[in-house]
From TrEMBL:
Belongs to the bacterial solute-binding protein SsuA/TauA family. It is found in: Periplasm. Residues 1-18 form the signal peptide. The lineage of its organism: Bacteria, Bacillati, Bacillota, Bacilli, Bacillales. It holds the Pfam family NMT1. This is ABC transporter substrate-binding protein. The keyword Signal applies. Its main location: periplasm. PANTHER family: ALIPHATIC SULFONATES-BINDING PROTEIN-RELATED, TAURINE-BINDING PERIPLASMIC PROTEIN. It comes from Neobacillus pocheonensis.
Length: 353
């Protein structure tokens, strides 16, 4: 039974989280639980079960997680996956560390940050080699913000404190000759909550992905100030590629459950290959309609711009870990001592069928 749980609040107790995972309920922080989608009712009781929290299932950067379910690839791989949604990758990280879920769908940079705090997690599938993010600045500041130095004093919207969007915001502020403390990161999530924050002038800028970035532009609310969405833009902004969307898990879990991890790798590598051989329109047709935010044409437009970010084999691209380490070290000196070999593995994607 592949299941989806949406907007699971980390304020919920561990007992409640476990109960919802076992019952297969879908939950929001404000409404009563409803039944989750069951797409493999004939699965054997011996089939392994895995729960994965993703920092925003509707975001195109995390599309492979839901797409694998829609394509039936979890079932084909012989694993029952429960996808749990939260608005920020930081929430997925916290849930993983708390033992509430088995895996986290977030950015690779969390594995480095966590190692500096004595926590060992590793990416077992690397799905993208650019962030797929844009630093958007409010149109009301178009004449004021001209260089990175001008980010000083701004309130920048991020998905959550400690999130990858927070880290990318910090890097750009520091790159402009400022200190990390020279701006205010404000957690505003993504999608409509971020858009509302921009409309109400609660934030001056935001680091966000698609389809939110395109919605901001179409509503004439903000413009792209730093492009970390395209490969060329990422090269210019970050000095190289930046491994982003990943499935990361506790190193101990990976060692104890290699067969389960292999099944997940099989499903995701197959999904990435499918994405590389199908059109944006065909891919969009596989996704839930609510992900279109009421405008399928806009969703397809955004999808066309983001598809090049994804890898086709799930492997960690050469040089990516070193560049991520360099970026984070600019404002997190402790990251310089991270052992990169413990933050990712290609073992499972190399053997993916």
């Amino acid at each position: 039974m592949n299941k989806t749980m949406k907007k699971l609040s980390l304020g919920v107790s561990g007992v409640a989280v476990a109960a919802m995972l076992l019952s297969g309920c879908s939950s929001t922080s404000t409404s009563a639980p409803v039944k989750s989608k069951d797409t493999s009712s004939t699965a054997s009781t011996a089939t392994p079960r895995v729960s994965i929290m993703v920092g925003g299932l509707e975001k195109i950067i995390y599309m492979p997680y839901m797409l694998a379910e829609k394509l039936g690839y979890y079932k084909d791989a012989g694993v029952i996956v429960t996808l749990v949604e939260e608005s920020a990758g930081q929430d997925a990280e916290l849930a993983l560390l708390a033992g509430q879920v088995d895996g986290a769908g977030g950015f690779y940079d969390h594995t480095l940050d966590l190692q500096t705090k004595g926590k060992k997690v590793e990416s077992v599938v690397t799905m993208a080699d650019v962030p797929g993010e844009q630093l958007m600045v409010s149109n009301r500041l178009k004449d004021k913000v001209k260089t990175l130095a001008d980010l000083k004093g701004l309130t920048i919207g991020v998905t959550g404190l400690g999130s990858s969007t927070n880290m990318l915001a910090s890097y750009n502020v520091v790159k402009g000759g400022n200190k990390e403390s020279d701006y205010k990161p404000l957690p505003v999530g993504a999608g409509q909550t971020l858009i509302a924050a921009m409309q109400n002038n609660r934030i001056d800028a935001a680091v966000t992905s698609e389809p939110t970035a395109t919605l901001l532009k179409n509503k004439n609310l903000a413009f792209t100030f730093v492009d970390m969405n395209s490969k060329d833009g990422t090269q210019a902004a970050l000095g190289g590629k930046y491994a982003s969307t990943s499935l990361y898990m506790n190193n101990d879990y990976v060692k104890k459950n290699p067969e389960v991890v292999q099944k997940l790798a099989n499903a995701y590598v197959r999904t990435l290959k499918w994405m590389s051989t199908h059109t944006p329109e065909e891919i969009a047709n596989m996704m839930p309609e609510e992900y279109y935010a009421g405008d399928k044409a806009l969703y397809i437009q955004a999808l066309k711009g983001q598809l090049p970010m994804f890898t086709t084999d799930g492997k960690m691209p050469a040089g990516d870990p070193e560049n991520v380490q360099k970026i984070l070290s600019a404002f997190k000196p402790a990251v310089k001592s991270v052992h990169l070999s413990q933050t990712y593995t290609n073992e499972f994607v190399d053997k993916a069928k």
